[in-house]
Design goal:
By secondary structure, the chain is mostly beta strands. The chain has no helices and 8 strands.
C-alpha cells in the first residue's frame, strides 16, 4: 500500500523490502511518476514479508502494518525515525484507509 501524508508534498509514501531483506522507505512522485528510495531503514522487523495497510498520521508520518509479523510501525516521511508502536495480528495481506 501507499499513503498520502498531508504536509508530505506531492508524494505518496510506502515501505518496501529490498534484495537484502531490509525495509526501505520509498516515495512516488505525483509529478514525475517515479519511485525514489528515501532511506534504507535496515532490518526493523524480523523476517519481513511485505507491508500491507498504511495510514497517515500527523507530523509528516504514517503507520504501516507488516503482514508476516503484524508489527505496526510509525515512520517519518523523511526517514529520520521508524519505530515499532504495536503488535498487531499477522496476515497474508491487509488493507486500510484513514482520512485526517
Amino acid at each position: 500500500d501507499w499513503v498520502y501524508v498531508p504536509g508530505g508534498g506531492r508524494n505518496l509514501y510506502a515501505l518496501g523490502i529490498n534484495s537484502s531483506k531490509n525495509t526501505e522507505l520509498r516515495s512516488w512522485s505525483m509529478d514525475t511518476h517515479k519511485w525514489t528510495t528515501i532511506k534504507d531503514l535496515g532490518k526493523i522487523v524480523t523476517g519481513p514479508t511485505g507491508y500491507g495497510a498504511t495510514y497517515a498520521a500527523k507530523g509528516n508520518a504514517f503507520y504501516a502494518s507488516e503482514n508476516g509479523s503484524g508489527n505496526i510501525l510509525k515512520i517519518a516521511t523523511d526517514g529520520s525515525s521508524a519505530t515499532m508502536v504495536a503488535d498487531g495480528p499477522s496476515s497474508s495481506s491487509n488493507d486500510g484507509a484513514r482520512c485526517i
